[in-house]
Design brief:
Elements lengths: L2 E7 L3 H12 L8 E8 L3 H11 L6 E6 L4 H11 L4 E5 L3 E3 L3 H11 L4 E8 L7 H6 L26 E5 H4 L16 H10 L5 E11 L5 H20 L5 H11 L8 H12 L2 H4 L4 H24 L2
Parallel strand pairs: 1-2, 1-4, 2-3, 6-8
Antiparallel strand pairs: 4-7, 5-8, 6-7
Helix pairs in contact: 1-2, 8-12, 10-12
Length: 309
């Protein structure tokens, strides 16, 4: 078995079905890959969707369930149950291009010890708005545009929406389960950082493509950013003993934290910029930016207060 495709999922049965259908249509030998769906405490319709698809017998699918613990534990369960030489992590809302596995495999055969990061683009079927164009692929959700060296993309681009790596590279490493469903962010970046500290590089391939079938409004994304903010103090605190790395992480992911009163400032700016008469004169992206910063900082403040970090 060449590939094990691991998909954590939580209450997205209709979109998951689209992902499975796309995997069944790949231009890659069906006997050379398996699909492992790990339900993270989903409602029964997720199992029904997978079972209905399994009846078609067009894809090798393994289905597992766990209590609602988060994607970190779901991916760990997938790793333990998988049998492929190469692990490919996908999101349950990412629709693979027909040549996804071919393009991942092509790089692995030339560079057998590398990680392969594929491109994530919006699925036009969901209706792409201006805000979605702002947050990805060159914004606060995905920033593929900051990759300068495609042969060494950097650990901060370890996106589990579309990334593959040999089982031999993973070894005994697992995702940190302190990033539970309440802190479902930074667990992938943390995993990538652990591998980078071992000298493992990430190769970026635009050809290894998936389409992100997820519609975002600013309000929905702001809720996500609170969760991301809660996760950052946990991530950063793990590396407190390495002062150089610790301060680099702080500067890279929360530079505003060096200045007092940032939460009140972001709240003030986001409120002012939300006034329609000002938005005619000021680029709306600044309003989005300060809103995102505010909710991110809010999540950080909540978590730091909770854990005294």
């Amino acid at each position: 078995m060449r590939f094990s495709v691991i998909i954590p999922t939580y209450n997205r049965a209709p979109i998951l079905a689209k992902t499975l259908q796309a995997l069944a249509s790949l231009n890659y030998p069906k006997n050379e890959f398996e699909v492992l769906v790990v339900s993270d405490g989903s409602t029964p319709d997720t199992k029904v969707a997978v079972e209905n698809f399994k009846k078609k017998e067009v894809l090798s699918i393994l289905y597992f369930e766990q209590a609602h613990q988060g994607q970190a534990q779901a991916r760990n369960l997938g790793i333990e149950k998988s049998g492929g030489e190469i692990i490919l992590f996908l999101g349950d809302d990412t629709i693979p291009d027909k040549n996804l596995l071919n393009n991942h495999d092509k790089i692995h055969r030339v560079n057998p010890s590398t990680i392969v990061l594929g491109l994530v683009q919006w699925d036009e079927a969901v209706g792409i708005n201006d805000f979605m164009r702002y947050i990805a692929p060159n914004g606060p959700q995905f920033h593929f545009g900051t990759i300068k060296n495609y042969k060494d993309a950097g650990w901060d681009h370890f996106y589990t929406s579309n990334i593959s790596l040999p089982r031999s590279v993973i070894g005994n490493l697992r995702f940190d389960t302190r990033f539970s469903h309440v802190y479902a962010a930074f667990e992938d970046i943390d995993f990538g950082l652990s591998l980078a500290r071992q000298g493992i590089k990430i190769f970026f391939s635009k050809e290894a493509l998936v389409h992100h079938h997820h519609f975002y409004t600013p309000e929905a994304f702001n809720k996500r950013m609170v969760m991301v903010g809660r996760s950052f103090p946990i991530f950063c605190d793990k590396y407190k003993k390495n002062k150089l790395l610790y301060w680099r992480l702080k500067w890279q992911y929360a530079p505003f934290d060096f200045f007092p009163g940032q939460l009140a400032l972001f709240k003030f700016l986001s409120k002012i910029l939300a006034q329609s008469n000002l938005l005619k004169k000021i680029n709306i992206r600044y309003s989005w930016y300060f809103n995102i910063c505010y909710y991110y900082a809010l999540g950080m403040a909540e978590q730091s207060k909770k854990n005294n970090l």
